[in-house]
Amino acid sequence: MKKTTLLLILFTAYFANAQQQEFHLDFEPGTPSGKVATWNNAFGGTSPVEIITNPDADGTNTSTTTKVLKTTLGEPLTAEFWAGIDNSESGEALGTWKIDMGVTSNLTLTMDINKNYVGTIGIKMATTSNGTTFEIGDQNVDNAVVDEWQTISFDLSGINPVGDLTNISDMIIFVDYTKTNGRVGQPSEYILYVDNIKWHAEKLTDPVVPTCDDGIQNGDETGVDCGGACDACPIPVTSLSIDFESATTFIGVDGASYTDMVTNDVTNGINSSANAGQISNCNSGPWSHIQMDITEGIDLSAADKGFSLMVKGPRATPILLKIQVGDDHAVNHEVGGNYTTPNQWQKITFDFTSFTTTDRSKIVIFFDITAGASGNSNDDIFLVDDLIFDAFSSLSSTRFEAAEFNFYPNPTSSSWKIKTKSQTIQSVNLFNVLGKKVLSLSPNSTEVEINASELNTGIYFTQIKTASGVNSIKLIKN
Questions:
Q1: Is the domain of 58 the same as that of 159?
Q2: Which of 6, 86, 364, 414 is the most buried (most CB within 10 A)?
Q3: How many CA atoms lie within 13 A of 365 on its CB side?
Q4: Final residue before a domain boundary, out of 205, 229, 259
Q5: How many CA atoms lie within 13 A of 87 on its CB side?
Q6: SS3 content of the chain, % helix, strand, coil (to 5)
Q7: Same domain for 269 and 245?
Q8: From CA 201, how far away is CA 205, in angstroms rounded?
Q9: Residue 105 backbone dihedrals phi, psi, to 5 degrees
Q10: 385/413 same-domain check
Q11: Could you give the CA distance from residue 273 to residue 246 in angstroms, rounded to a whole number?
């Protein structure tokens, strides 16, 4: 009986401890901790996190090839004391674990650090719902070792046992947990390198394996579900031309209505197009608008871009053109303009040259956003035409008349020829019905031939630029 009891005790002890394992974050390639996308700035105040080769092989970390985590606190005198790095936004990139306070090996956490400042390194762990498991800021206080690798240790035996010690998924490191909002006589920016974070715990789940259809940017992806091992990310558009002669993907939102291919009833001025888009009930609600998705994103990186839009309506009104990231209306760029020629077409330009992003993927257009609905519903009906995104300097001129050039044959199965009477054609851009540029030419002559033999059958729009302005025409490939 004694032997049986002893074996049962030994088996129980072995089984309990067998569930424990060492977690080791070494930031090496191919590991969850070695992906820079796993880490992010915690609670503000830090520059982008980097994973780099050890820049200072000395002290307790003498390898010249090992990878380390680097974070920079750019304004330490004003940053909050909880500024640092964590993996909370990457979900369960490190898996989940449970800390059993009854297991001695679980009561210590160590890490290698190298920093250029005197400060207190703090740590925190949190659950999958970002609830704090424990937080330590009163150990390794005012650590004075500078510009040399050292191993620091945290005693976990005093952490709050009432805290949720299960389903932990987040590891947080505080750059300088002083609660003094910065120190005097220190570097203008704090630089912290971290390596070999080690602790013991019971593993609950393995790290989540990124997929190409989970709706988030993870793994080696360079965008959401694209890049790296996934399909290549769409290339943001650098120019766009929509002439509303055929159906578009614009829709009315928040009470506004949108109709494609409405007959243009004023063709004797600057806009001789046959059709236009129509927005009705443009002021039925505070945020009534029309919008269109550009899934590839809009490339403003050249810092010389803008939009132009033809507008005709029954009254003068301010117009706001906004581009945003998907449905996130708060992440946007917006530029205003004014329509001032009631019942006549007016070309309005929107200067986006101060922006350099490439991820805005929805065009949103508001009419008279500051006012309520009109007493007469006809006063809230506007036509739009010739939406162009291109170099802003090319958008300021009124487009030249269609009568000044000829294009033929149309439709064609082989090529189109475009001739002007006297104007030099500076550039020709050809777009498919989705607004994607498929061909670009710079003829610098009064005529140009567009080879259509390699194009798919369908409708195309060409944007022709001369010294007089920009014009768009519809071309058909048989």
A1: yes
A2: 86
A3: 32
A4: 205
A5: 27
A6: 10, 45, 45
A7: yes
A8: 12
A9: -65, -15
A10: no
A11: 11
Beta strand pairing call for 67-73 and 190-205: antiparallel
Query: Is residue 194 located within the same domain as residue 321?
Result: no
**Can you tell me the distance from the alpha carbon of 392 to that of 401, in angstroms, rounded to the nearest whole number?**
21
pTM: 0.49
Same domain, 193 and 45: yes
**pLDDT tens series, the chain, 478 aa:** 444 444 444 444 444 454 789 999 999 988 889 988 788 887 665 677 899 999 999 999 999 999 999 998 877 766 777 888 988 666 678 999 999 999 999 999 999 999 999 999 999 999 877 678 899 999 999 899 999 999 999 999 988 766 788 889 999 999 988 766 556 678 888 899 999 999 999 999 988 777 788 777 766 777 778 887 888 888 899 999 999 999 999 999 999 999 999 999 998 888 989 999 999 999 888 889 999 999 889 999 999 999 999 999 999 889 999 999 988 888 999 999 889 889 999 999 999 999 999 989 999 999 987 667 788 889 999 999 999 999 998 886 444 444 466 778 888 889 999 988 778 898 888 877 666 778 899 999 999 999 999 898 888 878 787 776 666 677 888 8
DSSP structural state of residue 431 = E
Q: Which of 38, 25, 21, 31 is nearest to 203 (CA)?
A: 21
Number of domains in the chain: 3
Residue 202's CB is within 10 A of a number of other CB atoms, namely 20
Residue 165: which CATH number? 2.60.120.260
Q: The domain spanning residue 440 has which CATH number?
A: 2.60.40.1220
Structure tokens at 10: 């030994």
- Going from the C-alpha of 137 to that of each of 11, 82, 186, 238, the distances in angstroms are 38, 10, 20, 49
Residues constituting the chain: 478
Q: Give the domain range for residue 445.
A: 405-477
- Residue ending a domain, among 205, 230, 249, is 205
> Considering the domain boundaries, does residue 64 fall inside one?
yes
Are both 359 and 425 inside the same structural domain? Answer: no
Specify the pairing of strand 20-25 against strand 257-263. unpaired
3-state secondary structure of 86: strand
Got the DSSP string for 2-21? HHHHHHHHHHHHHHHHHTEE
User: Which residue bears the tokens 């982008």?
Assistant: 48
- Start-to-end CA distance of the chain, whole Å, equals 92
Query: Are residues 256 and 191 both part of a single domain?
Result: no
- Residue 213 in any domain: the answer is no
List all residues 6 or more positions away from 194 whose beta carbon is below 8 Å from its beta carbon: 27, 68, 69, 70, 71, 85, 111, 112, 113, 173
Residue 323 lies in a domain: yes
